[in-house]
Amino acid sequence: MKNEDFNLTLLNAARKIHHADWNWKDVNSPFARLYMVENGSAKVILPDGVHIIQPGYLYLIPAFVTHSYESDSVFIHYYFHIYNGYDIFDRWNFPFEVHSDELDVLLVKRLLAINPGIELKYSDPRTYDNFSTLTQNIAKSSQKSFIFGLETNGILNQLFSRFLDKATLKQEVSDKRIKKALRYIRENINKNLHVNDLADLCSLNRDHFTRLFKKEMQCTPMQYIIRKKIEKAQLILIASETSIKNIAYGLSFDDVTQFNRSFKKVTGISPTSYKNQYK
Predict the structure, then answer these.
(1) Mean pLDDT to the nearest integer, 163-175
(2) For 12-47, what is each residue's pLDDT tens digit?
(3) Mean pLDDT across the chain
(4) Positive or negative torsion for Cα 240, 245, 247, 249
(5) What whole-number distance in Å separates Cα of residue 92 and Cα of residue 198?
(6) Handedness of CA 240, 245, 246, 251 (dihedral sign)
(7) Which one of 96, 143, 169, 193 has the minimum C-beta count within 10 Å?
């Protein structure tokens, strides 16, 4: 992993007191969430089961992980919403919880102290899980003073390092040519990508490139490309009012029918049904 891959942007931060009102279902956001509990406990329902969050730990929920919250008593916690544009969550499996120590508590409090005024006005995720709010918060983050911005990045990196210490690679890509192809796909996902062009980029013939790619990624180049396009479509669907037709053509699908078919194959539901879940 390169240093620039860990370019983290702090979007929102606050210490929040809830009175049995931290109850939200099927939350799915284009940013990661970092939590530290000060008092009380609550439930977080993730795809792998129900987790109790409580003092003494740091908690991390990656972007695009659908989850729910439940609380039935007084619950005090710190929250930080963090954006990363380099797919670190696509390449690494991060643990949900890690033990925190006195230094972590001090870092969390300092991070909040040097980033005042970025608390969410409302706790309902539906009010901030959208593209306009995301871009506004990124813009606000870029306006921080250099000194506080540098300190903010340092603290975020320290806190994330707690999770990275126990993280595992989802896939270890050893072939530099395939790494080059993956970076090209990531940077050009809106374009009409062809396997022949990727093979040429890697100075390989199509068959050899396809075999190498499948060995490294456990799928064909086109399967990978379609999956990444659909993941991008999921972000656009929940974060903007862009029409399904414009999303399809914006991601270089031949037509809406092909896009709908690919979307349902990857997610299990239609684009319309997916979007309606987050209205």
Answers:
(1) 84
(2) 899 999 999 999 998 877 689 999 999 999 999 999
(3) 87
(4) negative
(5) 24
(6) positive
(7) 143
End-of-domain residue from the set 169, 200, 227: 169
Q: What is the pLDDT of residue 6?
A: 65
Q: Give the C-alpha separation, 188 to 229, whole Å.
A: 10
* 21: CATH: 2.60.120.10
Look up the domain containing 272 and give its range: 176-276
Number of domains comprising the chain: 2
Whether residue 221 sits in one domain with residue 98: no
Collapsed DSSP state (helix, strand, coil) of residue 94: coil
Same structural domain, 115 and 230: no
Residues 6+ apart with CB under 8 A from 166: 94, 95, 98
Of residues 53, 37, 16, 11, the one with CA closest to residue 156: 11
What is the 3-state secondary structure of 131-146? Answer: HHHHHHHHHHHHCCCH
